[in-house]
Amino acid sequence: MAYVGRPGARIWYEERGRGTPVLLSHGYGATSRMWEPQVRGLAERCRLIFWDILGHGSSDAPDDPAAYSAEASVAAMTAILDACDVDTAVVGGLSLGGYLSLAFHLAHPERVRALMLFDTGPGYRNEDGRRRWNAMAESYAGALEERGLAALGSGGEVRAAEHRSARGLALAARGILAQRDSRVIDSLPDVRVPTLVLWGERDEAFVKPGEYMAAKIAAARRAVVAGAGHAANLDRPDEFNAAVCEFVDALGT
Q1: 186-202 pLDDT, tens per residue?
Q2: Where are the domains of the chain?
Q3: Angle (deg, nearest 10), helices 96-107 and 70-83
Q4: 70 CA to centre of own chain
């Protein structure tokens, strides 16, 4: 495990395994610990690089709201790949991590060998959709400020997490989870790299976003994990790992 320095903060990351570099980003309120079933199942075939988003887990949780943004998160991902001496990687994530993976591709397409988008969406093109999403993010932030870490809920990916600061998570909700524009969703037709779009069969909120991304990305392959909810990698790790292995193996060396 190690840290990369960012303005006013340190970002925690770790790499395990060997083979094709794969950068994994977790969902909001979770940490890189959610990828433990993938470390066990994929580390002999992939060089897994995972990290804690600012305000989460072992990364710092600065008090400055300006430190928290999708752009700063993309810059942290870039710094981690640089620290690992990786020029190009398969870039993937779940929920917020999937959105950040698309944002990373938008900023640095030359560093993305392929994309893996798990139980996630590309954001909203219209202001009403963003307004509803941002109201949800603000409700998360308010609950964390009022009730502390107890407000995180009981999702599988959240139960595996340990955090330093409820305030850091609240700031991350307002600064990273909230959306400002439609650049990411507008970029989908420009994605030319192989892309795995995967969701859990029972993750109703992300079925339509998954179908939309699979239709808009030219080189997309879709996979539905039977019986899984939002944290498909935890609910059905064997099926999830098999889908990822098949996708990565098809990329070749």
Answers
A1: 999 999 999 999 999 99
A2: 2-251
A3: 70
A4: 11
Q: Which residues of 189-218 are buried (b: 16+ CB within 10 A; e: fewer)?
A: eebebbbbbbbbeebeebeebbeebbebbe
User: pLDDT of 33-66, one tens digit each?
Assistant: 999 999 999 998 899 999 999 999 999 999 999 9
Q: What would the 3-class secondary structure string for 181-205 be? A: CCHHHHCHHHCCCCEEEEEECCCHH
Which amino acid is located at 124 in the chain? Y
What does the DSSP assignment read for 123-158? --SSHHHHHHHHHHHHHHHHHHHHHGGGGG---HHH
- CATH, range 2-251: 3.40.50.1820
Which SS3 state, helix, strand or coil, does residue 232 take?
helix
Do 92 and 22 touch, CB atoms closer than 8 A?
yes
Look up residue 43 and give its amino acid: A
Rounded to whole angstroms, how far apart are CA atoms 74 and 31? Answer: 16
